[in-house]
Amino acid sequence: MALSADESGRLAGLLTSHVDQVTQRWTEVVAGQLRGRLSQAELRHQVQELHRALVDALGKGLTDLAAEEGTELRAVLAEVSRGQARQGFSAAETATGVFALKDALLSVMEADQSAGTLRDYVAFGTLVDQMGLFTFESYVRTRESLIADQAEQLLELSTPVVKLWEGVVAVPLVGTLDSARAQVVMERLLQTLVDTGSPYAIIDITGVPAVDTQVAQHILKTVVAARLMGADCIISGIRPQIAQTIVALGIEFGDIATKASLADALRHVLRLTGVETGRRQSRREA
Amino acid sequence: MTSGVDLSRPQAQTVGSDEDVVRVRQLVRTVAVAVKLSLVDQTKVVTAASELARNTLVYGGGGTVEVAAVDNGRRPGISIVFADSGPGIADLELALTDGYTTGGGLGLGLSGARRLVDEFDIQTAPGQGTRITITKWSR
Ligand SMILES: Nc1ncnc2c1ncn2[C@@H]1O[C@H](COP(=O)(O)OP(=O)(O)O)[C@@H](O)[C@H]1O
Ligand SMILES: [Mg+2]
């Protein structure tokens, strides 16, 4: 427990009777730390919102932030730290926004000795500490999910067509292959086949998290288009879980060569071209 | 948001665009990992969800998907409901036939999704929309 019931009541009283001084000083301290990166109006609104939630919670008899009475207050704290995490404030800046309440309480209690004792101040401080730590945790959770979201978005970026070997181009597909991207990939691949005169294309799906029927259909169409241009396609990077899923779905790749890895696919192509070179040589010898 | 999913209650996702289908996949993946499905089973249920969510979008005219962590007392699992108020399916047997499509697809979405999961329940009628529930248990 952070506070006794009496202390909780006295803190509520102090916050209500000195509402202007507390929010004023609180806002000043935070503004000094953030140096104008949050507008004065936004900041004042945030402080008033926290002040209100804290007074409400104390009014319900809050003695510990983790308790039932603290639900609303925790929601407001989480909202504030989510907002700051998204706006790029540091974890320390976000938490000190809450810790600044201590400065505000101190200046009010110094100016008005009847507002509470030193013992009260220390007790109030432990509740503020709980609030600060909670803010810190919410901040970290928000940042973690932001990072996860960005990683997903990176995966969705389109991928280039590369010349892997003389006569062999490769398209490493990464992320989601929706219709729009599939179209871009197919066009680039066909253009590269023309530009390089390559007879072989390897479509690598190592980076595709799930091959559903739409992805499969896009790949099949690309293979057919490449064939019409005289190029043979090999599909590589079929991981075991993808292979099992494709089989269960009932997708058939027909006579299209498939390989487990890009290296296997390249080896396969080189063997094919090696055989042809061999044949040509023997013809010359004959 | 993909991480920090609250497993204690079902997570809802509206399906109104291609991006939403991607979101459904990501949500299903997160819950499938959380209930400890194997990598193969994660991939299967994510793929089934991708098929059914796309059907919700394309044929159902959009709808909602609800993903829940479940437990049958012996094993944890993932249960997903796809609901739309589109035209419904008149001939279910035909729609569940491999290769049958009215939209120029591969016609393997419904039938394939059924093979990818442990439980598959479908409620549909012309003009009544379509509601599909799938479940995959961890082994
Ligand atoms: N939610 C739905 N509402 C109405 N019709 C549907 C729905 N889902 C599937 N269908 C019908 O079932 C057919 C088969 O679906 P599916 O196996 O996914 O193949 P595909 O998506 O390739 O057409 C669809 O072409 C469509 O006519
Ligand atoms: Mg389909």
Automatic annotation (TrEMBL), chain A:
Signal peptide extent: none
Record bears the keyword S-adenosyl-L-methionine: no
Superkingdom of origin: Bacteria
Domain spans labelled STAS: 158-269
One family name in Pfam for this protein: RsbRD_N
Keyword field: Phosphoprotein
SUPFAM superfamilies linked to this entry: SpoIIaa-like
Phosphoprotein recorded as keyword: yes
InterPro entries, alphabetized: Bact_StressResp_Reg (IPR051932), RsbRD_N_dom (IPR025751), STAS_dom (IPR002645), STAS_dom_sf (IPR036513)
Protein name (database record): Polyvinylalcohol dehydrogenase
Automatic annotation (TrEMBL), chain B:
Transmembrane segments: none
Name this protein carries in UniProt: Anti-sigma regulatory factor
Superkingdom to which the source organism belongs: Bacteria
Histidine kinase/HSP90-like ATPase domain: residues covered: 40-139
UniProt xrefs under SMART domains: HATPase_c (SM00387)
Organism: Micromonospora gifhornensis
The encoding gene: rsbT
